[in-house]
Amino acid sequence: MIDPLKAFLQANALNAPAFAPDSRYHGLEIAQWVRADGEVLSYVRRRFVPPPENFATLGEHRVEVGDRLDNLAARHLGDPQQYWRLCDGNGALRPDELTETVGRRLRITLPEGVPGDDT
Description:
This protein is α+β, with helices and mostly antiparallel strands. The chain has two domains: 4-44, no CATH class; 52-109, Membrane-bound Lytic Murein Transglycosylase D, Chain A, CATH 3.10.350. Helix content is 20%, strand content 18%. The chain is built from three helices and four strands; from the N terminus they run H-E-E-E-H-H-E. The strands form two sheets. The chain has a two-stranded antiparallel ribbon. The protein has a two-stranded antiparallel ribbon with strand order 3-4.
């Protein structure tokens, strides 16, 4: 006899996303690769950095001595782990380049697809 509770749980299993909605990896496909010995390895497919023009400007920050992206993300976005949004909004592939030059202006942007005043 089939356990109805077990059957219900199997039929309605929730697929939890691999990454939180505020992760830069959220929504990326998880792929698998099978090694020659049969072991299956899972990996996240490559994330392409979206073009900066896809982001509406919320404000700007002029880089000062000692600035760090995590601190800037905490100040402007409310979460230091969102530093990658500063990278995306400024088209940076290498995060450190954003704070290397004192006086550089960084765009503080809304998430991709969220319209702002400059769109």
